[in-house]
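Bumping my old thread because nobody answered last time. Still need a sequence for this structure:
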């Protein structure tokens, strides 16, 4: 049986790029959150798999095409790679909340699919998101949730309160979350070496 690997799952909008109440519909609307690309370049120097898991209801609502969404995802990945980072997988739910699918977060379907296809140890992985649905998907998949404060400001107070109730770790942004992950990993390696 192949050795499973730890992963950092990432929501896209509100974690890597700025979230928009009217959806990111084009490359012109795609704006990276300060420090996100650099944080992913640091994370790429580790053994962690880096996996984007994103709800894109704009596809199901016919606001953008699947091809337009894929072009935005490709641009995001290319920008991360150009800065020295990597992305090991991108998983997209194109459905609306009314579709009742198994892949739209808070359902854990995207995380399960990535785990099956990429050989991920869910119990040794983390999920970084800006919405309670990300935290809930992480918990449903047995993944440690991390909540960042770079999502939509108008929903932040309610989302933050729920994230706290669900015992998610909370950081100001992706850069701080990655710093925490790397510090924790270093501490684990030091403990193992000293044991």
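Sorry it took so long. Here it is:
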């Amino acid at each position: 049986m192949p050795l499973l690997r730890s992963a950092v799952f990432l929501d896209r909008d509100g974690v890597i790029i700025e979230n928009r109440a009217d959806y990111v519909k084009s490359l012109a609307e795609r704006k990276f959150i300060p420090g996100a690309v650099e944080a992913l370049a640091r994370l790429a120097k580790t053994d962690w798999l880096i996996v984007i898991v994103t709800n894109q209801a704009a596809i199901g609502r016919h606001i953008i095409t699947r091809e337009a969404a894929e072009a935005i995802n490709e641009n995001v990945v290319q920008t991360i790679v150009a800065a020295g980072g990597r992305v090991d997988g991108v998983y997209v739910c194109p459905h609306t909340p009314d579709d009742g699918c198994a892949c739209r977060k808070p359902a854990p379907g995207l995380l399960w699919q990535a785990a099956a296809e990429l050989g991920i140890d869910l119990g040794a992985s983390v999920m970084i998101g800006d919405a309670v649905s990300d935290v809930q998907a992480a918990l449903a998949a047995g993944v440690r949730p991390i909540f960042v404060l770079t999502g939509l400001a108008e929903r932040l107070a309610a989302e933050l309160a729920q994230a706290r109730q669900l015992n998610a770790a909370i950081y100001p942004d992706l850069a701080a979350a990655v710093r925490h992950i790397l510090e924790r990993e270093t501490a684990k390696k030091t403990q193992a070496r000293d044991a």
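The CA atoms of residues 50 and 88 lie 5 Å apart. Let me know if any region looks off to you.
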